[in-house]
Specification:
By secondary structure, this protein is α+β, with helices and mostly antiparallel strands. It is 34% helix and 22% strand. Strands 3, 4, 5 and 6 form a four-stranded antiparallel sheet that branches. The protein has a four-stranded mixed sheet with strand order 7-8-10-9. Strands 1-2 form a two-stranded antiparallel ribbon. Strand 4 (78-82) and strand 5 (85-91) form a beta hairpin.
Length: 165
Amino acid sequence: MIVISRCFSFYNNSLTKIHGIGKMQKPTPKNAMNIVDRIKRSVANRDDGVFLRGEFERFGSPAQVGRALAQLTREGGLVRLGVGVYAKAKPSVLTGKPIPARPLEVLAPEVLKKLGIAVKPSRLTQDYNAGRSTQLPFGIVLNTGKRRIARKLGFNGKSVRYEHA
């Protein structure tokens, strides 16, 4: 046995065996960060509260990024607002479940801005702000001009509707 370890000293020094599978793998350094940790750090260092999946492409393959975002959503660090759209999360005061750190009324225009869509307040909101109406607008309605939007954004039953001018 001593002779084998001397002949195959590279095995003990530079490669480790994975749990009985027989494949070899180089050991990872103690300070190596996985994709989840890198995305956590990236989210914590940003001021904006909304993130698109494409912003994390540099951290790994699409499948790896998707799994990491799903894990962060399960852990409560992020909440999903739509397909490929995530927001920073905080625990709810009432239930303790994760909710967006900022209201959806603030996050939705940010998302559309990142997607390159110009957004204005809805017609009813403009009338209320100008004093032409005393009726408060119901729900979240955004005016996207002549552009038609099919993207669904929302959280916990509250969704964004689009108005075309």
